[in-house]
Amino acid sequence: MQSILDTITATMALRTQRGRVADYIPQLASVDPNQFGIAVVLPDGQMFSAGCADKLFSIQSISKVFTLTMALGKIGDAVWSHVGREPSGDPFNSIVQLEHEGGKPRNPFINAGAIAIVDAIMMGHQPKETLAEILQFLRFVANDESIFIDDKVAQSELLHRDRNASLAHFMASFGRIKHSVDHVLGTYFHQCAITMSCQQLANAGQFLVSDGMNLSTGIRVVSPQRARRINSLMLMCGHYDGSGEFAYRVGLPGKSGVGGGILAIAPGNASIAVWSPGLDSIGNSKLGTEALEMLVQHTGWSIF
Ligand code: DON
């Protein structure tokens, strides 16, 4: 495994077309695009990594996997009255479907859906309490107490919130947001500003590899059925309007973030985190996707 990761990292280092760093969140625009990291955790907890696998980056939308998991834990199938579970085929920050679909987001991974999930897990609490819960959950699944929120990134997104604020207010106009829109948005921006390394993220994904169990800690996080369902959503919706392309090229459930990270799950085989800040035109990590494509070619881990 180590030699595969070293080969992938050496190949990525030679790439000249590295995509474009997200600049609509100014704090992310200054990240050096010439970075690449990869970490793979096997079901027994053994970790392999290469490149900048211990460098911290903004996990952004990858956080949505964990807030969905929390929401399912808190309210179970009632989650599906807040969001759907169909791919949207539209960009991650699109508003158009909301108008015709009663303000209900297509799935929990597009921005509107993730904002609705935050509203669902707040349950009358203040943003600080909800954020503490989110952070606690991530520290628990990653088995790592050092995970934190980068307040500068959260503030940067708050200052440039027009699009997400539009989505939240639009949903509120349908009676779909129960808490203060400002509180929901503030919580969402801080959730997206969680900072992790590939190694930490690959650890956090372990429960989705082994039917809901984190085998390295011996702790069950969710039921086998729930793990399968979260994986199915990641496969169908985790890369927005690029989900079909990702399934075609990589063939694994995956969730991307505009920080350039991707968490990919090879059920029964591995939890994989890659990071390279340059994005493709859809907003998914360009080299991250190419690296995963190489990894499945070498390992045969595609689910298809
Ligand atoms: O709300 C946003 O726009 C960002 N905090 C998250 C978007 C994101 O990561 C899209 N993923 N590729």
Automatic annotation (TrEMBL):
Pfam family, one: Glutaminase
Keywords: Acetylation, Hydrolase
InterPro entries: Beta-lactam/transpept-like (IPR012338), Glutaminase (IPR015868)
Family: Belongs to the glutaminase family.
EC number: 3.5.1.2
Catalysed reaction equations from the record: L-glutamine + H2O = L-glutamate + NH4(+)
Gene3D superfamilies assigned to the protein according to its UniProt record, in alphabetical order: DD-peptidase/beta-lactamase superfamily
An MF annotation (GO) of this entry: glutaminase activity
Any one GO BP annotation for this protein: glutamate biosynthetic process
Entry protein name: Glutaminase
Subunit (UniProt): Homotetramer.
This protein's record includes keyword Acetylation: yes
EC main group: hydrolase
Binding-site residues for substrate, renumbered to this chain: 61, 111, 157, 164, 188, 240, 258
